[in-house]
Design goal:
The protein is an alpha+beta fold and 361 residues long. The protein contains eight helices and 21 strands. Strands 7-8-9-3-10-11 form a six-stranded mixed beta sheet, sandwiched between helices. Strands 2-1-4-5-6 form a five-stranded antiparallel beta sheet, with helices on one face. Strands 14-13-12-15-21 form a five-stranded antiparallel beta sheet. Strand 5 and strand 6 form a beta hairpin. Helix 2 crosses helix 3. It comes from Desulfomicrobium baculatum (strain DSM 4028 / VKM B-1378 / X). One of its GO terms (molecular function) is transmembrane transporter activity. Pfam families: ABC_tran, TOBE_2.
Length: 361
């Protein structure tokens, strides 16, 4: 079920001040995808989700789920939350500790007066799906964090919603469990082929889980794309910086060739990924630490070779993180764990043009 959001704005008034939580958001969330709203805390993710759900009324605009308009300021339409056909897994919408697993999952059906044998069948089917068969009688308090999360998912799915929405559902889990649960969640959601809207401020979670990511800042959608597109090929500096570690270097376009854009920067003349930019334009060169490679040998010269001095070297297990002073800039590079490099060495680095990304300033 596709979700369409058109011109949605939302202001809050708090302590005499106006807060623009959503600023004219227009967005189409495609059917049967895992679609993530990613952005820093306070950028309006939860507010947008609450508007879709109907827990919050926008100041303007229109929201449709499938063919149905569920909110329209102009047309005076408001479809209540329980009639929107949604399932929700919210951070603050935890499972009920005083109930067992069966009752937690059955709850949304019980409130709809579904016959008891139908409830039993649907709860069992859903518990089987989230791999919690046999846990029906277990008190919610006797579950691990990951199992509680699966109960919350089962409860959101039991009424067979058209859309499922998540607001930072993994943020209370420890790092290892979070990793496992997000993998599991992706498997479950892909299998269901349901429209899922997922809110997080965690870039790794967004990359690992999503089919598409919308990056938000200050109540606006800045950029939308697949995880790969957002990571390797962002259009905006904010997006490139938010989605992964990046060295951001001021640059100026000096030449356009058939397959590349050439810039002048403190690192010298660098051949970059082709971008449609005017010669003379001011841009930002974005280099991911993992694509700054130590060149074999010394004194090598040529295109995209940069000389620099190693200032710090930190062992992080699978790699070394190295800070290199080059052309007055301090670059972060991630290099192989078996490197023989030491602090103070002067080295040459190569930059693959395909991974020299140019973003708007
Ligand atoms: P996010 O989920 O991205 O962290 P929110 O949607 O919760 O962001 O909040 C967006 C902005 O709106 C923030 O500045 C927040 O402080 C403000 N805000 C959210 N809810 C309320 C509210 N009920 N009253 C006043 N301000 C709010
Ligand atoms: Mg939030």
């Amino acid at each position: 079920m596709e979700i369409r959001i058109q011109g949605v704005s939302k202001h809050y008034f708090s302590e005499g001040k106006t807060i623009k939580a959503l600023d004219d958001v227009t967005l189409t969330i495609p059917a049967n995808q895992i679609f993530t709203l990613l952005g820093p805390s306070g950028c309006g993710k939860t507010t947008l989700l609450r508007c879709i759900v109907g827990l919050e009324s926008p100041d303007s605009g229109e929201i449709s789920i499938g063919d149905e308009v569920v909110w329209s300021k102009d047309k005076g339409i408001y479809v209540p939350t329980e009639e929107r056909g949604l399932g929700m897994v919210f951070q603050t919408y935890a499972i009920w500790p005083h109930m067992n697993v069966f009752d937690n999952v059955a709850y949304p059906l019980q409130t709809r007066n579904v016959p008891r044998d139908v409830i039993r069948r649907k709860v069992e089917k859903t518990l089987h799906f989230v791999q919690l068969e046999g846990f029906e009688k277990r008190p919610a308090t006797k579950l691990s964090g990951g199992q509680q999360q699966r109960v919350a998912l089962a409860r959101a799915l039991v009424a067979e919603p058209k859309v499922i929405l998540f607001d930072e559902p993994l943020s209370n889990l420890d790092a290892k469990l979070r990793e496992e649960t997000r993998k599991e969640l992706r498997t479950f959601l892909t299998e269901l082929s349901i429209t899922a809207v997922y809110v997080t401020h965690d870039r790794i979670e967004a990359l690992a889980l999503s089919d598409s990511i919308a990056v938000m800042r200050a109540g606006r959608i800045i950029e939308i794309g697949s995880p790969q597109k957002i990571y390797f090929d962002a259009d905006h500096r904010f997006v490139a910086d938010f989605i992964g570690r990046a060295n951001l270097i001021p640059a100026k376009v000096v030449q356009q060739t058939e397959n590349a854009t050439v810039v002048e920067s403190p690192l010298g003349v660098i051949t970059c990924q082709k971008r449609d930019l005017a010669v003379g334009a001011t841009v930002t060169l974005c280099l991911r630490p993992e694509f700054i490679r130590v060149a074999p040998g010394s004194g090598e010269e040529g295109a995209n070779v940069v000389q620099g001095k190693v200032e710090t070297l930190v062992f992080i297990g699978e790699a070394f993180e190295m800070e290199i002073r080059a052309g007055g800039e301090l670059l972060l590079a991630k290099v192989d764990a078996d490197t023989r490099t030491q602090v103070g060495d002067t080295l040459h680095f190569t930059l693959d043009p395909a991974h020299c990304l140019l973003v708007a300033v």
